[in-house]
UniProtKB/TrEMBL annotation:
Native species: Amycolatopsis echigonensis
InterPro entries in the cross-refs: UTP_pyrophosphatase-like (IPR053136), YgjP-like_metallopeptidase (IPR002725)
Pfam families (UniProt xref): YgjP-like
Gene3D superfamilies with a match to the protein in the record: Metalloproteases ('zincins'), catalytic domain
Protein name, per record: DUF45 domain-containing protein
YgjP-like metallopeptidase domain location: 31-246
Length: 259
């Protein structure tokens, strides 16, 4: 046996739990062994060049308790829907519209537009690449489209709330937040890129939630002054808040499950 097979055989001999779905990945640039636990509980052993199979087996065996804890947590936090595979035909929700992924063998631009790009016929065009590259490209698309939407929609609340000099960001905010307002000196409303895969009424709630903070209401962060501002802007904000809590269990990618 050569390549990954020799390491797979060494790890298989450990008789690890079958539900761990252990795979190996050779990493030419790594200098040490590593382990990644993916959303849903799959385990990947990261192996540098010329690693000894027995050394790899000892490493995995020595981290068995750690793997058990991480797999248990990953399974508990896993979404209750299939994780995206980033293959042709998959659907993606963005700003209230559903798009079907269409992969093309093309340069980075198509018809003068940067790929990935949204088409009027509800197609999402992306270059045919590895799933990980497609994933990163689509996330960048969410960030780009989401930022344009946030700046456009947020300006109305800036006007109504007499908010001046506010900036916007769309980025990864981790697994616990859809959005956050950073006070001075940043004075920035930041939204998670994954929020733009929610129904539009919930995206609006996330934005309004942070814009209300940007008005600097007195008292507790979600106290009476903040609640009054929310009610002034969005009468059904409590209902939308409850809907968002439920929607958090159905985030569109397996690596985002807010609490």
């Amino acid at each position: 046996m050569t390549g990954p097979d020799v390491y797979t055989a060494a790890i298989t001999a450990l008789c690890l739990p079958s539900e761990w779905h252990v795979t190996v990945a050779l990493r030419p640039r790594r200098r040490s062994l590593g382990i990644e636990v993916q959303p849903g509980g799959a385990v990947t052993v990261l192996i540098p060049p010329q690693a000894d199979p027995e050394q790899v087996a000892r490493f995995v065996r020595g981290h068995r308790r750690w793997i058990t804890e991480k797999v248990t947590a990953a399974v508990r936090l896993a979404p209750n829907h299939p994780i995206k595979q980033f293959v042709a035909g998959e659907t993606f929700d963005l700003l209230g519209q559903r798009y079907r992924l269409h992969l093309v063998d093309a340069p980075a631009t198509r018809g003068g537009r940067q790929l990935p790009a949204l088409a009027p016929n509800n197609l999402l065009y992306a270059r045919r690449e590895s799933p990980d590259r497609i994933r990163r490209a689509i996330i960048e698309l969410y960030r780009r489209e989401g930022l344009a939407w946030a700046v456009r929609e947020g300006s109305e609340y800036e006007r109504r709330g007499r908010i001046e000099g506010l900036r916007y960001q769309v980025r990864d905010l981790g697994r616990r937040r859809w959005g956050v307002y950073h006070g001075q000196p940043k004075h920035t409303t930041a939204l998670h890129w994954a929020a733009f895969g929610l129904p539009l009424r919930l995206i609006e709630y996330v934005l309004v939630h942070e814009q209300a903070h940007a008005t600097h209401p007195g008292g507790q962060p979600h106290g009476r002054a903040w609640q009054r501002q929310m009610t002034l802007w969005m009468l059904d904000w409590r209902q939308r808040k409850d809907e968002l809590a439920e929607a958090g269990r159905h985030a569109w990618l397996g690596d985002f499950e807010p609490h």
